[in-house]
Design brief:
By secondary structure, this protein is mainly alpha-helical. The protein has one domain. It contains 3 helices and 3 strands. A 3-stranded antiparallel beta sheet has the order 1-2-3. Strand 1 and strand 2 form a beta hairpin. This is Aminotransferase-like plant mobile domain-containing protein.
Length: 100
């Protein structure tokens, strides 16, 4: 894993390669795919750095307890609810693609 890191950053090519290797045959694989996709979004679109080569490891804990639960309970920040909705849409799309 050290080869896939640079300082506090995880190389985006590692997430891309992992995402592309996944076979979406079950819920676990779908969740892995979605987590990779979200980390790629964090590293490029949402919190991209000038080099766009890595994503900061500090975002990993945000995905630790991801289990497909999208209910908005409690005092969750707006960005958290937004990410949940994005994840829900992505999972729904992946499931539709699997059926084809």
């Amino acid at each position: 894993m050290k080869a896939n890191c640079r300082g506090s950053f995880i190389k985006l090519v590692w997430f891309r390669a992992l995402k592309n290797r996944l076979v979406l045959v079950d819920e676990v694989q779908i969740q892995r795919y979605v987590k990779c996709y979200i980390m790629l979004l964090f590293g490029t679109v949402m919190f991209g750095y000038k080099s766009a080569a890595g994503v900061h490891w500090k975002f990993l804990p945000l995905l630790r307890n991801y289990g497909g639960s999208y209910s908005s309970v409690g005092n969750r920040p707006a960005w958290h609810t937004c990410i949940d909705r994005c994840v829900e849409q992505l999972v729904s799309t992946v499931r539709r693609l699997m059926v084809r």
